[in-house]
Amino acid sequence: MEELSGAVAVMGYGLAAIGPGIGIGLVVAAAISAMARQPEAAGMVRTTMFLGIAFTEALALIGFVLFFIA
Amino acid sequence: MEQLILASGACDPANEIICKPDNVVDLFLYEDNLLSIGPWGITRTVFLILLAMVIVLALLFFGLRKRRMNPSKYGISIESLMLFVRDEIAVGIIGPEGVKYYPWLLSLFLFVLVGNLFEVTPLINFPITARMAIAGGLSLLTWVIFVFVGFKKNGFGYVGALIWPTTVPVALRPLVGLIEFISTFFLRPLTLAVRLFANMAAGHLMLTLLLVSGWVFISSFSEIGLRALIGVPWFVFGLGIYVFEIIVAVLQAYIITLLSAVYVDSSIHIEH
């Protein structure tokens, strides 16, 4: 593993961003289709969407912090 | 350019792939005291915390000073901001008893909002919430409040419902209980603090990187000639990020308040 040095932390952050990227995409896509089907529920859907994004995003942000720590 | 911004002085670009200072925290550290009173020194960060506090108090004081039938435009905007926190966050998430937590949620929202917007305020350009001490302190306060409320409302049934959830099959209860326990008492405050901190730190780094490096290139036009034009797209991109960061600042203030309300709600209504 000696030759794997230097940018490993950046690669780790890149890997950590894959899952949340897909997850946030799914959350927002579902929220958009919900808002399009039922525009009167848009306010409630938006709040829940931000909650979902916030929970999903945490993983990517932890990866981002690890990049500084490593 | 004598002073390197993000690369440490001893960095050799030929060998090291990434040049970063030994401690990125240096970017967010101001150790010189602006003034010191006895054993207490006021650094730039502490000064900005006090400034944010004064701004929040002044906003509310001047917005609500006169109660009249036809409030001024400023009074209406402050009042609608407060009503947004009360109706959308406090009552909307927690329910009618959420009004009790409304003062705390409003102070959290306004303080974090002002602290975040320092990032895009000219001449300040430093988000105080990008310091882990402040984000961590705020999330620790949230932690204390939701744990206290959980014990006050439900007694020891609060922890009991967490580590022995009756809605899942018996064989899975220890596992789910362990995960729930760790996520509630350890991961919640951690992610709450890290979310705010990392968003603000990332934004601050991006703005520093793009705007300052673009400016360094443009301002050295007389030395390197036309090659200095490479700084122009960076600077323009940095200005785009600047607008984006305004949205992020408001959104993160909203999200930390929303999540605090959700955590308190989950402590009050433990059945789900």
SSE layout and pairings?
The complex is a heterodimer of chains A (70) and B (272).
Chain A (H helix, E strand, L loop, with lengths): L7 H30 L4 H28 L1
Helix pairs in contact in A: 1-2
Chain B lengths: L34 E3 L2 E3 L1 H21 L8 H22 L7 H16 L14 H23 L2 H7 L9 H47 L1 H4 L6 H38 L4
Antiparallel strand pairs in B: 1-2
Can you characterise this structure?
The complex is a heterodimer of chains A (70) and B (272). By secondary structure, chain A is mostly helical. Chain A contains 2 helices and no strands. Helix content of chain A is 83%, strand content 0%. In chain A, helix 1 packs antiparallel against helix 2 (42-69). Chain B has 272 residues and is mainly alpha-helical. In chain B, 65% of the residues lie in helices and 2% in strands. Chain B has helices at 44-64, 73-94, 102-117, 132-154, 157-163, 173-219, 221-224, 231-268, and strands at 35-37, 40-42. Chain B has a two-stranded antiparallel sheet. In chain B, strand 1 (35-37) and strand 2 form a beta hairpin. The relative contact order of chain B is 0.12. Chains A and B meet through helix 2 of A and helix 2, helix 6 and helix 8 of B.
